[in-house]
Amino acid sequence: MPGRFFLTSDLSRITGFLGAIPGGRMTLSPRRNIAPGQDILVCPPDRRLRLMRWGMIPVGRVNARGRPVMETIINARSETLFSKSAFQGVRRCLVPADGWYEWTGEKRRKAAWRISPRSGGLLAFAGIFDIWKGPGGIAVPQIATVTCEPSADVRDIHHRMAVILSPDTFDAWLTGSEDQAQDLMRPWPDGSLTVEPATGVTWDAG
Questions:
Q1: Domain 4-116+125-132+146-197 carries which CATH code?
Q2: 110 vs 1: which has the higher pLDDT
């Protein structure tokens, strides 16, 4: 959808793929299980890589009593991205990944699947971000990935997938109009992904 993903490529490969530069002194270790709530590597429109918390507290979202809703959103649906007030004013970004995980089966007997590019290259998930401002002046950069209908490659294991962008569309996603961005929010071409059983992953660690 994704709910967990992995990024094991080194920093030089990631910057070359995204056409980006590290933001400040940045080191990067392979991560085989990245979970919501953790800091993840993000490429904003200025192409300077930075870390942001995966999970957004939506701007202006309130409950029936008019109080702020603090529940985080890790994935935003492409179909309503530009119409929901919760995402008003967010900016767009790229999230590099080597692949992601999905699960099938009954609770406590679920099978984990590893999804990655058939070509062996990197992926760029479409993302949105903003800065959450909390009590005491705290400011937390936060991000959510964008999802769409699944391609044929992943349809049997999940009803949604991340919006994946190719390098020739990076500029349009990062700085283009809403109409340009809307055109990019579609399933990755059929036959481009490999789905295989996920083994050797510790699910409670990042």
A1: 3.90.1680.10
A2: 110
